[in-house]
Amino acid sequence: MIYRKNLYRWEQFLRISGGVVMVIFGVAAMRGSLVGYGLIGAGVALVVTGVVGWCPMCAVGGRRLKSARQAET
Q: What is the domain partition of the chain in residue ranges?
């Protein structure tokens, strides 16, 4: 594995479901507008981080899972 996961399973589920809702809303309700494209882009980013289990912004902040912290000691 190239990266260490820094998202819990429940957070992955929330990111995937929230991202899907954002994409659907961006396509259906905001068709062709700049806000709609922004929602689609943010939704896709949430889905990708949820599927992969790694968030780059959480990594910048130094966030790690409890199991990863215990393995280092």
A: 9-72
Nearest of 15, 21, 8 to residue 66 by alpha carbon:
8
Q: Which sign does the torsion angle of CA 19, 23, 29, 32 carry?
A: positive
Cβ-based neighbour number of residue 19 at 10 Å? 22
Tokens of 22: 């954002």
Q: What is the pLDDT of residues 35-66, one digit of tens each?
A: 999 999 999 999 999 999 988 888 888 878 77
What global pTM score does this model have?
0.81
1 vs 41: CA distance, rounded Å:
27
Structure tokens belonging to residue 43: 């939704």
**∠ Cα 32 34 38 (to 5°):** 110
**CA angle at 5 for the pair 15 and 69, rounded to the nearest 5°:** 125
